[in-house]
Amino acid sequence: MQIRADQIASHLQKGLRPIYTVWGDEPLLAQEAGDAIRAAARAAGCTERQVHTVAGAHFDWSGLLGASQALSLFADRQLIEIRIPSGKPGKDGSDALQRYCQHLNDDVITLVQLPKLDRQQQSSAWFTALDAAGVTLRVDPIDRKALPQWIAQRLAAQGQRVQGGEAGQRTLAFFADRVEGNLLAAHQEIQKLGLLYGAGELTFEQIEAAVLNVARYDVFKLGEAVLAGQVGRALRVLEGLQAEGEAAVLVHWTLAEDIRGLKRVKDAVNAGKPLPMALRESRVWGAKERLFERAVPMLTDNAVAHLLEAAQVCDGLVKGLKHPDWPLDPWDGLKRLVLMAVECTAAAPGTGRNRVAMPRLALTA
User: Fold this and answer.
1) 74 CB contacts (<8 Å, ≥6 apart)?
2) What is the CA 152 to chain-centroid distance, rounded?
3) What is the pLDDT of residues 221-269, one digit of tens each?
4) 130 and 47 assigned to the same domain
5) What is the pLDDT of residues 107-116, one digit of tens each?
């Protein structure tokens, strides 16, 4: 049985299942889900707790199996936590987890904690057994588009709100920009607002003065902003990556991969293939698939060729080579490449001549 992170509270009110699996790469939501399950287990009489962390290939799985079947001397029921930080229990662990699920004890509530899993891990025998035996809860990072609403909900939970209308939306957008990619820090900033101002309406000035710039970015967020045509966000992410010490080579590689992906999909569409088929063959899935669906129709062959040439020049810049028409600093070169890509993907539909000319604006950046 699979549920979302925001469904855990209502689910636990209906009663506990024997085993819960929390997995994903958002620490705050995983921690909150685990805390909710622990609190419900304590309320159900699980006054004893065991924690087993699977580290390395020499974990004692037999000891875990024995602990799940042993009666506690000091508590009516017990909570057993199984933490697998790598997400890879190995062959012995796979067999042990399947046996564990087949012999669940009514006096034991089990919480399994895992990182983000790939498709192969999700379809493995051990994970399938966990899902069939109890509840699996996936925790994903909050998307940038959904972050303002998430912040508003968290503020409401502590009796606070922003102004109504467009002014409030601008305030929430500002807040989201400050904490993007760092949900733990966002949670702390929201709690800080509760301590500083108490219940009621918050002004933009109050939030601006209180909320620190704690945003954290990864290179893949940069690609999403570029493909979405969000020039402000793309430049903000790029500056954040530079400030955090990210390698310019890695940033360029991510941008170049997206540009090459656009080229492959555009060529397939030109060859007569439907866009959905071209995307599947180029292994473009998930959120990026929607972004490609938006960007590809706006590109001409000349625009793609222009971006490929620029990416090649920028590849030399980040590796120490100079180009007479490009900045000496590799991050300035990356900024120009970002602007060119955004201008291509954000261009309004029109003639090929008008749309190809737009990347020249980036030369002034």
Assistant:
1) 47, 48
2) 19
3) 888 889 988 888 899 899 989 988 889 999 999 999 999 999 999 999 9
4) yes
5) 899 999 999 9
Amino acid symbol at 102: Q
The amino acid sitting at 168 is G
33 plus 123 within the same structural domain: yes
How far CA 203 is from CA of 168, 174, 207, in Å, comes to 8, 12, 7
315 has which bridge partners?
A: none
What CATH number is given to the structural domain containing 149? 1.10.8.60
Residue 127: CATH number of its domain: 3.40.50.300
Cβ proximity of 8 and 33 under 8 Å: yes
Give the model confidence (pLDDT) of 178-211 as tens digits: 898 889 989 999 999 999 998 999 999 999 888 8
- Are 223 and 328 members of one domain? yes
Cβ-contact 148, 185 below 8 angstroms = no
Long-range CB pairs of 358-364 (<8 Å, 24+ gap) are 359/303, 359/306, 359/307, 359/310, 362/336, 362/337, 363/325, 363/336
Check: CB of residue 217 under 8 Å from CB of residue 241: yes
- Provide the number of structural domains found in the chain: 3
Final residue before a domain boundary, out of 139, 162, 178:
139
Structure tokens given for 86:
């790598």
Q: Say how many Å lie between the first and final Cα of the chain, rounded.
A: 52
Same domain, 254 and 318: yes
CATH assignment of the domain containing 322: 1.20.272.10
203 and 246 fall within a common domain: no
Q: What is the mean pLDDT of the chain?
A: 87
Q: Model pTM greater than 0.85?
A: no
- Name the burial class of residue 102, with classes exposed (0-12), middle (13-18) and buried (19+) by CB atoms within 10 angstroms of its CB: exposed
* Cα 223 to Cα 205: distance, rounded to the nearest angstrom: 32
Structural domain for 156, as ranges? 144-210
DSSP classification of residue 73: S
CA 193 to chain centre: 25
